[in-house]
């Protein structure tokens, strides 16, 4: 008889999560089985629960910022062992044979699998993933608050590490929420001069504690005008629709406007602004596994950590309501209490 585990699942778009039993099949030779200890909640979980991206299958078990201990390893798993504490993010498997995988860009594999789509997510007693997508958690990082590093942390660190951001650069972060508060910390530790853009000026003192040198109202046209041509790199972590051409003009020549937040509306960009300053617009998902390893080591060395609010998983609907309200500061983590 197949083993079943407990979980919380959304029965339909926007529905409250309900207790659910998941049948666990045989463990693949290159997979690991992880007992969930903590799981962060991300806006992507809400997007999947509400089917905003049109790829949700119900009942849905969301959750993709997982900290837990390896419960079992398949026969072909190298390097990992039962009992180790690992983190698992959005991706759960890649093909390992395509050009992208063989080049190290596993996260760009056309056949990449994700939790919540190809497999059930972390709002459950256990999850499974290919061994390459589990990262051993360094001792310097606190397990109860580190889950968000495997989504938000990897997502914002990847362009900093991979796109040539320099310690001498003047950089901006648009949106200081779950992703943005980590981006500000990473960029400050990287050595950059950091300007944070937010629509919530009540957050200013907290944002400065995260490391921002300046805090600007994201809708203040006069303040944006004053920044014309000053920023080398501008990281967008929000899903809000803003005057992107105006933000493009804040970039210095060769500057980059980079999206990691999922803007739901098409971008309205002034092409003359791109051409005239030889500027760039780009985007990226979570980082490749090696980038995540570097991010974890860097976070431990520089004491970069998510600021979290914790709920027992049995109060998951209350936690989701808190996130929907916009009151979360700045990431929510569920503690497994099955």
Short description:
By secondary structure, this protein is α/β, with parallel strands linked by helices. It contains eleven helices and 17 strands.
Can you characterise this structure?
- This protein is α/β, with parallel strands linked by helices and 338 residues long.
- The protein folds into two domains: 3-150 and 306-335, Quinone Oxidoreductase, Chain A, domain 1, CATH 3.90.180.10; 153-283, Rossmann fold (3-Layer(aba) Sandwich), CATH 3.40.50.720.
- Helix content is 25%, strand content 28%.
- The protein contains eleven helices and 17 strands.
- The chain has helices at 43-49, 99-102, 143-146, 152-162, 180-190, 204-210, 221-226, 244-248, 271-277, 289-302, 316-324, and strands spanning 3-9, 18-24, 31-41, 66-73, 85-88, 91-93, 113-114, 126-130, 134-136, 170-174, 193-198, 214-217, 231-236, 251-259, 280-283, 308-312, 331-335.
- The strands form four sheets. Strands 3, 4, 5, 8, 9, 16 and 17 form a seven-stranded mixed sheet that branches.
- Strand 16 (308-312), helix 11 and strand 17 form a beta-alpha-beta unit.
- Helix 4 (152-162) runs parallel beside helix 5.
- The protein is globular, with a radius of gyration of 20 Å.
């Amino acid at each position: 008889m197949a083993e079943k585990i407990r979980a919380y699942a959304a029965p339909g778009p926007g529905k409250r999560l309900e207790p659910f039993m998941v049948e666990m099949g045989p463990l693949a030779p290159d997979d690991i089985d992880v007992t969930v200890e903590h799981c962060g909640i991300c806006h992507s979980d809400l997007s999947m629960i509400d089917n905003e991206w049109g790829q949700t299958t119900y009942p849905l078990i969301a959750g993709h910022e997982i900290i837990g201990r390896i419960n079992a390893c398949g026969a072909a798993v190298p390097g990992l062992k039962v009992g180790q504490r690992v983190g698992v993010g959005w991706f759960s498997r890649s093909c390992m044979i395509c050009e992208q995988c063989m080049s190290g860009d596993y996260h760009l594999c056309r056949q990449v699998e994700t939790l919540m789509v190809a497999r059930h997510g972390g709002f459950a007693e256990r999850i499974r993933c290919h061994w390459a997508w589990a990262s051993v958690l360094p001792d310097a990082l606190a397990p109860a608050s580190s889950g968000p590093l495997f989504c938000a942390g990897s997502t914002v660190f990847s362009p900093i590490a991979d796109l040539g951001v320099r310690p001498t650069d003047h950089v901006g972060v648009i949106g200081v929420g779950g992703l943005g508060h980590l981006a500000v910390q990473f960029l400050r530790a990287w050595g950059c001069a950091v300007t944070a853009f937010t629509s919530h000026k009540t957050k200013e003192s907290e944002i400065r504690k995260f490391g921002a040198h300046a805090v600007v109202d994201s809708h203040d046209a006069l303040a944006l005008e004053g920044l014309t041509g000053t920023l080398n790199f501008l990281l967008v972590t929000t899903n809000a629709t803003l005057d992107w051409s105006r933000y493009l003009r804040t970039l210095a020549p060769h500057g980059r406007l980079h999206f990691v937040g999922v803007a739901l509306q098409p971008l309205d960009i002034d092409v003359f602004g791109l051409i005239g300053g030889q500027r760039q617009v780009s985007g990226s998902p979570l980082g490749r596994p090696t980038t995540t390893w570097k991010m974890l080591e860097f976070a431990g060395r520089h004491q970069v950590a998510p600021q979290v609010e914790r709920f027992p998983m049995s109060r998951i609907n209350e936690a989701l309501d808190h996130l929907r309200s916009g009151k979360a500061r700045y990431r929510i983590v569920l503690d497994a209490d099955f």
